[in-house]
Amino acid sequence: MNYLAHSFLSFTDGQIVGQFLEDFIRNKDRFSFPKTIQDGITLHRAIDTFTDSHPAIHEAKKVFAPLVRLYAGAFVDVSMDYFVATDLSLNSLAEWKTHSLKVYRVLNEHQEWLPENFKKMLVKMEHDDWLYNYREDWGIKFSIQNVLNKAKYLEKDIPVFEAFLKNKDKLQQCYDDFFPDLHAHAKGINTLLQLEG
């Protein structure tokens, strides 16, 4: 799962921060944060583990694996944000806009916990409203290109976006088979975190 899904599957402001921080911190540093942020880090990891083991995600990876091999999971994560953003059973368009603005506000209110490289990315994320614009083909194209640009062992012009467009129906089916299970799993993990208090 990518940024939008992780933010949607957060149940407190602290969890939003932790979900975003997980990819930017060393494991040994996780205990230096307040409990609510640690909960977000834990939730992020639980979501990733569940996602990686789900049969529908294994099926979705087949779309990208011929082009990018072991990087297929990263492109599935980005693709799933498109389907989360366009899933009006979760939120209306107006609610998705409200959600994206809330996430940017929460992250900016917790600047003291954000590493410098994340702060720089947050400026771009908010300026271009990544979270809301994942619903657009151009928004996903931009994200896919970002992954290609950062990937050490991939050419930058691999037609991953074209594969996304060509296989959108198949990826939609994978999302439909997967996301309700993930949503229920995240709710269960949150319940356990709250019981730990």
Gyration radius from CA atoms, angstroms: 16 Å
Strand content: under 5%
Low-confidence stretches: none
Structural class: mainly alpha
Distance between the termini: 26 Å
Considering DSSP H and I runs of 4 or more, what fraction of the residues is helical? over 70%
Detailed description of the structure:
This protein starts with a helix and ends with a helix. Helix 2 (13-21) crosses helix 3, helix 4 (55-68) packs across helix 11 (168-196) and helix 5 crosses helix 11 (168-196). The chain has helices at 3-8, 13-21, 35-53, 55-68, 72-85, 93-109, 116-127, 130-133, 137-150, 160-166, 168-196. The chain is mainly alpha-helical. The chain is globular.
In short:
This protein has 197 residues and is mainly α. It contains eleven helices and no strands. The two termini are 26 Å apart.
Features:
197 residues, 74% helix
